[in-house]
Design brief:
Elements lengths: L1 H23 L2 E6 L7 E3 L2 E3 L1 H13 L2 E6 L2 H10 L4 E3 L5 H4 L2 E8 L4 E5 L16 E5 L6 H5 L4 E5 L2 H10 L4 E5 H11 L4 E7 L4 E6 L8 H13 L2 H7 L8
Parallel strand pairs: 1-4, 1-5, 8-9, 8-10
Antiparallel strand pairs: 2-3, 5-12, 6-12, 7-10, 7-11
Helix pairs in contact: 2-8, 6-7
């Protein structure tokens, strides 16, 4: 009997490391929209600040990552349905918490800027927005007062590039965008747009996991690995490497 028990225990010691390795080598599907320099989708692949940070986390955990591009609003639906596991960069709201878990405030806060083309559309205070056509990213959340204000006229579009072109053509009066992505888009397109003096402080955005995904059970592993990135300086290095992109 003692020999049988010994053989069973010895077999367990051999099996456990193999099971652990198989669990670590997890396949994770991440939904992203093209929003440079946060998330950049080209024929050569995907990159950007948010992608680089998540890839660093996934590499340390030894996960296999597959990226799927879709408009922002569709990514939200895919998260709700469990068609993708992870989303990079959503701002936490009560409605979104019903369908996804906000694992860690990984991505730095960005001020919300109001870009204008014509001087008469310069925004100096919130009340100036009434009566204007405001370009917004479809499905995006900016700040609670703005998001819930039904008196505002908002024009939801799938990409910031299209919003800025609409601004230049006069199809919208202002475009609201996070600081880095707004400046980057304006500079890359060479659009004559200015920033209004009225601005809104940003909030941290998150790595989020669909509540219908098996990856949800690994949320603590993501948080712990992110803390490693912060402690060893990798996070600060990655963020600082993107700070100058918007001004180039």
């Amino acid at each position: 009997m003692r020999h049988v028990i010994f053989r069973l225990l010895f077999g367990l010691f051999l099996v456990v490391p193999l099971v652990s390795a198989a669990e670590d080598n997890l396949s994770v599907t991440v939904g992203i929209n093209h929003a440079p320099p946060y998330r950049v989708v080209t024929d050569e692949g995907v990159t950007g600040l948010y992608v680089d940070i998540f890839n660093e986390i996934a590499d340390r955990i030894d996960w296999n990552v597959r990226y799927v591009e879709a408009p922002f609003r569709r990514i939200l639906r895919m998260m709700e349905d469990g068609d993708i596991d992870v989303m990079l960069g959503p701002v936490k709201t009560a409605e979104r918490e019903e369908m996804m878990a906000f694992v860690a405030p990984v991505f730095p806060p960005e001020r919300k800027l109001f870009f204008y083309h014509r001087d008469e559309n310069r925004v100096t205070e919130y009340e100036d927005l009434y009566g204007m056509k405001i370009g917004v990213l479809a499905g995006a959340s900016y700040f609670e007062k703005f998001d819930t204000d039904e008196e505002l006229t908002k024009e939801p579009i799938a990409r910031y590039e299209n919003l800025m072109r609409m601004l230049e053509m006069g199809r919208v009066d202002v475009v609201v965008a996070p600081e880095l992505v707004g400046r980057y888009t304006v500079n890359q397109l060479g659009i004559d747009a200015s920033e209004s003096p009225y601005q809104v402080p940003g909030e941290h955005s998150y790595i989020a996991i669909s509540r219908n995904s098996p990856v949800l059970s690994r949320r603590e592993q993501i948080s712990a690995t992110f803390e490693q990135l912060r402690r060893d300086g990798t996070y600060d290095r990655l963020v600082s490497g993107y700070r100058n992109h918007a001004s180039k």
